[in-house]
Description:
This protein is mostly helical. Helices cover 67% and strands 3% of the residues. It has helices at residues 24-35, 43-74, 93-100, 104-144, 155-168, 178-205, 224-240, 245-252, 261-291, 309-345, 350-353, 370-389, 393-421, 428-460; strands at residues 78-79, 88-89, 356-360, 364-368. The strands form 2 sheets. Strands 1-2 form a two-stranded antiparallel sheet. A two-stranded antiparallel ribbon has the order 3-4. Helix 4 runs antiparallel to helix 10 (309-345), helix 4 (104-144) runs antiparallel to helix 13 (393-421) and helix 7 (224-240) crosses helix 14 (428-460). The two termini are 38 Å apart. The model is unreliable at 1-9 (pLDDT under 50). The chain crosses the membrane at residues 21-41, 47-68, 177-201, 268-289, 309-330, 373-393, 399-419, 431-456. Keywords: Amino-acid transport, Membrane, Transmembrane, Transmembrane helix, Transport.
Amino acid sequence: MVESGNASGNRFDDDGREKRTGTVLTASAHIIAAVIGSGVLSLSWAIAQLGWLAGTVILVPFAIINYYTSTMLADCYRSPDSVGVPGTRNYTYMGVVRAYLGGRKVQLCGLAQYASLVGVTIGYTITASISLVAIGKANCYHRKGNDATCSLSNYPSMAAFGVVQILLSQIPNFHQLSFLSIIATVMSFSYASIGIGLSIAKVISGKVGKTALTGTVVGVDVTASDKLWRSFQAVGDIAFSYSYSIILVEIQDTLKSSPPENKVMKKASLAGVSTTTAFYILCGCMGYAAFGNRAPGDLLTDFGFYEPYWLVDFANACIVLHLVAAYQVFAQPIFQFVENKCNKKWPESKFITSEHSMSIPLIGKCRINLFRLWWRTAYVILTTVVAMIFPFFNAILGLIGSCAFWPLTVYFPVAMHIAQTKVKKYSPRWLALNLLVVVCLIVSLLAALGSIVGLISSVKAYKPFSNVN
Length: 469
């Protein structure tokens, strides 16, 4: 958005686009910003449903699966892939699927990807408002006591979050988001570390909940049906918590062409997934050790901790700042998709294609596109309104996540890898890859069932326009 002076040397890449400047650091920041969300604070709840045995065992295999399939997807960024000869760039996930698989699968990929991206932006609006409200409630509890009635509306917080996103949405493209992703990464480390630290302090104090190898106890903590559905949901939460495939190709498209983008992306994926796994294990396990089978859905916003209130406030502020930045990481592919379609359909329209230079105080000269300004503002307003109307949308997001996880994180990367490397049908490798696809499909279906049951409960308790916590 901000104009810069002429750079020395070649300013364009081999495809004629502005030279990419992304590195392992920026790609890792994008991945961590996308993966370590406030959901890390709910992993103790997931482990409570499954217990020490299944809960901790599941964390590592799904980290490995997500990393493994991400390396397959990274290798498909250029096509055809020939040794020593760089192929044509594929700028989006749909472009990659079109290059290697084609047909109806391209539309299926687009539906799954963009439905997930839209869902995430709506979910982030709701989650950010919950954290903002939690700050006010923490201060209220500190003044009046933990048993006080402290209720605040989420609507003003959602509106404020929307205003900030309207401004940030004018950043033209993914390539200029690195500073936001770095901020988001620092914030995610901060609130996850606070959650871990507070949990450790509670364990040291000795005032801990009851834990078990198999988690919540039927007849004591939950009913038999609740145990079943919550276990399905917990497995899904853990599996989906690592997934960033919906934006992997877009992240890879920000990288410099030398060294090769796929090699850099694999390093970034390893750094991102390894860091994420360490935080997930620490936060999930220490949270469960502290609260046992009655672990809250979120260590901070569900007030697993009331004091020190200022630290809880700071952690929730970090969550909000992280979500402010992460919203853009997931929204930019949507913006680019619509704008590219419109540019191709109406190339003569000055409203759509013209850039206008203007000076903004404290920022400098910026390039403003009227269509970008109008369309992105409308999108943010729409997602904010949907968040206000459906405050239980996070339950819907769980269902969207379970439906999108299998095709985007597992099926398409494996299918494209088989097509790219020409894996022989019915060979041991072919059978192993397809077994992975089937296992992950079963996980997705079970998680979808758990999400549907949770969604039904949310809808039954829903009261329109009474969004007060």
